[in-house]
Input
Amino acid sequence: MIHNPSWLYANYEVYDASLGINKPSETHSNIILNLKFFSQLFFSIFKTHSKIIKLIFLKTTKDKFSELVLYEIGDHSQQVFQNDQFSNPKFISIFDQKNLFRCSKFSIFKFYKLLLKNYRIAIEVLQMPPNNLKSIIINHLFNSLPNSIFYEYFFNDLKQHNSGLRIVSSSCLIFPLTIAGNIGIDIRVKMHGLMGKVIPEGFPKLNKLELLHKDEIKYFNKLLPSLDVESSVNIPIKNKEKSVIIFLRQTLQSMNDSNTKTNFFNAQLMDAINFFTSKQFKVILKLHPNSWFIQEDLSIRFTKFEFIDKNHSASEAISMFCPSFVLGWLSSSLIEALNMDVIPITLESKPYNSIVSKKTIVNFEKRILNYETDIHKISDATDSPSDYRKIINSLNP
Output
């Protein structure tokens, strides 16, 4: 029996293969790089971190990595935790293992014990009966094994020297959180985006999971009944303005119908803008918080529209401008709009058969309108409050 083998399954490729979403790709482990990694752990000079760390905050960045904020909490720790506010935080990338290790007290004996323990796990993996998951796990083993040793050592050390250690994450980073959960650290995940489908074998042991939509709540209540799951708080917009907010994608390329980068054009987007302006609706645009382009990169036809500060979250933008409709592609902003009693409309063409949509728990077909196929419903909703209410009730029963 493998001891705490959950980190072996804490891999999105294992998730996808188990759920039948995607075929596994061939991966080749770079043994030289992993030997270099081990040598860095052994021979680096580690500094003692003198401050008492009571909270670790993992935050998603535009590069799809996450940052670890080491923060010393004083008398107002409960208030800080509730508001997710930090003063003078120290950011270290969760994947910057060299700098993370500088926050630990290094013991060659403890490290050697973890090395032997994980080596035995690797041997047992090699002895598993042949199946698709085994081949994927072995493909990733030379990468996951040193990472498992590193994170277990790091979290064990923090837990030993810091009572009341807690991890608060804005996304479910399955590998490091699985390691932390296995050693009993208090973990709270407050999802800032939509949750994907998971497998129980590779899911972290969380103390609390806060999700955006009730579809996700229902999914986890069935899959992991013992997990404390709750819905994020959203205040419905009661007094709506005659306006629409359009949440743009992260890159121009993903929206651009034009063959040239200098002449941005999207037919569906322009048609939607023309439709709502003809109905006397104010059109407001918002760049993605981690947008790879700036407002000036859009063509001149967008200069007349108001832009929301991209640093505002979707819920903040909706609360500030109180729109009647929110447009975008297949993103969490549409579901947040629905939670706030605002009709969400996607500019994505049907069918929604991308890998991302297949992984997402929320059923976009049932929860949002499609601009192309539901234009008559959208038109009715712009003219009739009763039709508007019927649509909201049908999307979010």
About this structure: The radius of gyration is 24 Å. Residues 43-51, 73-82 have pLDDT under 50 and may be disordered.
